[in-house]
Amino acid sequence: GIVCDRCGVEVTSAKVRRERMGHIELAAPVTHIWYFKGIPSRMGLVLDMSPRSLEEIIYFASYVVVDPGDAPVEKKRLLTEREYRDLKKEYGANFKAGMGAEAIKELLADVDLAGEAAALKAELQEATGQKRVRAVRRLDIIEAFLQSDNKPEWMVMDVIPVIPPDLRPMVQLEGGRFATSDLNDLYRRVINRNNRLKRLFDLHAPGIIVQNEKRMLQEAVDALMDNGRRGRPVAGPGNRPLKSLSHMLKGKQGR
Q: Per the database record, which ranges form the RNA polymerase N-terminal domain (predicted)?
């Protein structure tokens, strides 16, 4: 447990660099792109919403009703900025709508898995065609959650793991330049945007600026997890798409 006076690093064996993980605590929750963009969209099946609607909420294009209160709108309906403002003005305190991963997290936390499973089993008695296929898919996912004791809101992340340094190496070339793993660039983007978002919270910045920064943080985490899964990939020098965690895992087949 000796710590170096000059650089503050613990003196320990070199293999720690291959096994010790770190983490980044996010200033705002973000969704995991595999659960929202996968086929089928697990998040969409649990919430019974289309991936397109989810995308509008997650990337701050539309509001979603989290708790209608006295307002004449149903839960999970998408609203424009104007509709949201009108409803908020009229129904005030007990009407609640939101956007981004925070709203998705609240909706997922509200899902009654046992109740949904029972309702879907009843629906399967008479459903046919496309409706039946969707009900079967939803029931599969919901029963998997029930059996594994996982909670749907865990599809939204508050903390991101950082893989050990030896798995994302940095090598000094002659001439003083560095060659580094793409993951370091992707992690750096997440850290920069996260720190900027924290600073905006401290400054009590206007809502629209905070929203934009949250969206950028979401996009940075998406690129880290699976670059290019949604739209254009983040590119590095020479316009080459950066390799994300998913690309590292692709094609691996055990030992």
A: 153-255
